[in-house]
């Protein structure tokens, strides 16, 4: 771990004004001000253990090698008091794509929005795949949105750098490819399967079998396969794109580069249009928060 982190500076002196912006299985994320520039950054604070020290070091090493408009930018990392890792990254105003999908009943993404998110994610995937990096956890939670509407991949905690087939069964259950679940040899095509499931998230509000326990969902994926994306909500181009992503045979599954040439990509809007959607989601969230606050005050 000490080989990949900043062992010189004291992060307590570099950053201030911490505000909690997210909590996940691996730790908490805070916004903070960088004292040298007054720039807003995101700091992910994660406990270090014997079990996760190696994977965390790998995550940092991979993030250091990635410089791309569709990858969240790495700034620095520190081990604090020997028990906690601070991972400093660029701040993303709108949090993750899940922020929008949680408003599925109030705000639907149209196909240009869906195509935009898929296209920008594919730009990032194509870049890391060319570096022999497999992300292994592509899902809406790990797609962040900037203040300009830019889409960026984050969370390389399950990632691996390899130019050969690998076997480790890691990732988020509902998004995992069949060959990964079975611990069969696999390559970066598992990310493409997960991208297809993310397309289903955007169209239907959640991945397939989300009503089942994770182990039951994994069994369904491997034994029954997954249903096609909703045909009554999808154009022929989107359905075809999805089928190329979620082809059971990874040898026939399209690559990121091939999918970037798919006709559905031509439907993509641009960042400004997607930003409008994000701002509408923020407005709805604020209205909901005010409603619940007013309701609480009335009952009180």
Can you describe what's shown?
The chain has 300 residues and is α+β, with helices and mostly antiparallel strands. The protein folds into 2 domains: 11-90, Phosphorylase Kinase, domain 1; 98-277, Transferase(Phosphotransferase) domain 1 (Transferase(Phosphotransferase), domain 1), CATH 1.10.510.10. The chain has helices at 11-14, 53-65, 98-101, 111-130, 178-181, 189-204, 214-223, 236-245, 256-259, 271-299; strands at 15-24, 27-34, 39-47, 74-80, 84-90, 133-134, 143-145, 151-153, 160-161. A 5-stranded antiparallel beta sheet has the order 1-2-3-5-4. A two-stranded antiparallel sheet has the order 6-9. A two-stranded antiparallel sheet has the order 7-8. Helix 4 (111-130) packs antiparallel against helix 6 and helix 6 packs antiparallel against helix 8 (236-245). The longest helix is centred in the last third of the chain and has 29 residues, at 271-299. Residues 15-265 form the Protein kinase domain. It comes from Arcella intermedia. Keywords: ATP-binding, Kinase, Nucleotide-binding, Serine/threonine-protein kinase, Transferase. GO terms for molecular function: ATP binding; protein serine/threonine kinase activity.
Q: Using the alpha-carbon principal axes, give the shape.
A: globular
For the biggest sheet, the summary is:
5 strands, antiparallel
* Structural class by SSE content: alpha+beta
- CATH superfamily assignment of the largest domain? Transferase(Phosphotransferase) domain 1
Q: Element order, helices and strands? A: HEEEHEEHHEEEEHHHHHH
Low-confidence stretches: none
Task: Return the CATH architecture of the largest domain.
Answer: Orthogonal Bundle
CATH topology of the largest domain: Transferase(Phosphotransferase), domain 1
User: Biggest sheet, strands in spatial order?
Assistant: 1-2-3-5-4
Q: Mean pLDDT, as a whole number?
A: 93
Per CATH, the class of the largest domain reads: Mainly Alpha
| Helix share bin | 25-40%
Distance, first to last CA:
51 Å
The number of E-state strands comes to: 9
Please, how many domains? 2
How big a fraction of the residues is strand? 15-25%
The tally of helices reads 10
Rg estimate, integer Å? 20 Å
